[in-house]
Amino acid sequence: MRTGIVGGLVVALVAVLFVAYNSLYTVHQTQQALVLQFGEVRAEVREPGLHFKIPFVQNVIYFDRRLLPLDSPPQEVIAAGQTRLVVDAFARYKITDPLNFFRSLQTISNANNRLATVVNSSVRRVLGEATFTEIVRDNRPELMALITEQMTQETRRFGVEVLDVRIRRADLPEENSQRVFERMRAQRVQQAAEIRALGEEAARRIRARADRDVTVLLAEANRESNQIRGDGDAERNSIFAEAFSRDPGFFAFYRSMQAYEAGLRGDGTRLVLSPDSDFFRYFQDPIGRGTPGSGIDFGQRDRDADDRDAAAAVRVPQTATQ
Questions:
Q1: 0.90 exceeded by the pTM?
Q2: What's the pLDDT tens digit per position in 180-233?
Q3: Cα Rg, the chain, nearest whole Å
Q4: Is residue 28 in a domain?
Q5: What residue numbers bound the domain in which 138 lies?
Q6: One domain for residues 72 and 168
Q7: Angle at CA 241, nearest 5°, toward 239 and 242?
Q8: Which of 91, 121, 261, 310 is 20 to 30 Å from 238 by CA-CA measure?
Q9: Residue 159: inside a domain, yes or no?
């Protein structure tokens, strides 16, 4: 009989523990819960801790109260100006009303599917009124904020709050990207050709100006050099005339030496001249008076030539005076 009593106590204890286990439940601080009784919501629990429920009659459904990710598949959007874009967006939301969430969506999977549709419609609606430049560069943060605002208004009835919507990527379709690339390349080639043509034109102008300056400089240099050379020749002739007028015999001898040097240059030089020619006057007589027996007195002839030159010099001033 004692054994039966002990066994009954053990069974009663197990039954009590089992009932207590099914009567207690815990809510984590990252969770919120709904207590259901035969499919109907009896309580909404948001405070973390240990809570009680009717065993075997009520059950508990938990919902995450943290931020939940929502990844929308890439979609094609037609922006303003009929520009086609492939937009990849994602969102972050949280469950703010577990009761409405359970009545409208029930599960996270259903919520993601429904919210993805809302994201796509909001993205299409907002980006359809923006230009390609605004989406890609200028007003992207403002457009994302507008999409977030519209999604918040549309999803409030589901018991969720959309906190952020981001555009991960907004590009042209592959075929459009190739056409845009070819168009940009053609524009760059055209710009390069224009710049190259402008550079060649500027080079021709600079080259023509440089050639003109070179021609002018060379002409001025030649003029100055000819003038300086003429002045030098005149000065040289004046110095030579003054020097040679002091000793005409030496002048005749010097000129003959120059003629010998120019005429007898080289080993194969041949001259066909008369022996009593004026060219050989200093070969026979160092003083240059002529060859004996020739009957020619070169010294006398030179003196006669000097007299004629002096007479001519005298006549020229008299003529100028008259």
A1: no
A2: 778 888 889 999 999 999 999 999 999 999 999 999 999 999 999 999 989 898
A3: 61
A4: yes
A5: 68-172
A6: yes
A7: 65
A8: 261
A9: yes
